[in-house]
Write a structure and sequence with these properties.
This protein is an all-alpha fold and about 190 residues long. About 60% of the residues lie in helices and about 0% in strands. The protein contains 9 helices and no strands. It has helices at about 1-35, 55-70, 75-80, 85-95, 110-120, 120-125, 145-155, 165-175, 180-190. The N and C termini lie far apart (about 60 Å).
Length: about 190
Amino acid sequence: MRRKFTLTLLACLGMSTLPALAADNIEGLVRACYGCHGTNGVSVGHSMPSIGGLSEAYLKNIMMEWKSGARASSNMTRLIKGYTDDEIAGMAAYLSKLPWVPQVQTASAEVMKKGKEASDSCETCHGATGGQPDDDKTPKLNGQWAKYMELELMKYRDDGFQMTHKKMMKNARKIDAGNVSTVAEFYGAQSK
């Protein structure tokens, strides 16, 4: 009887550490992202996005698109294919719980005015300042690096580039080519 109790106790203790081990494993996987996306997903590279604090649904969706090849990215497609779907879901959940830290960039009053006018088609989904997405599959733009956003907008405008979000493609093409960087700078300068 005593041996049965001891074995049961050991089994229960072993099972109680599984979630902690799994969480540690996910944290370790996420740390690999910090090499490019910055500590806690707060990027310091102007052409690399911040990812900490973006929604779980958005992060999981975009990573699964890279994994399946539905969305093009030479680096991310290659990197993400090594993860299981459960690991991707865990990384998305982990990153979404981190705080969103806008990397607010300066922009002139003229850029802010022109950017506000040129970003009308963006406001419905991302909010007036890019910080109030209308659903959990839409990323925050406020304080995201302007150079990164400009590059992404150019991809959405290019028929030859493999992007999946049809509405985003349509709206990016509504922005006059001369205003793409202005819209990106407008959102990059937003703190909220």
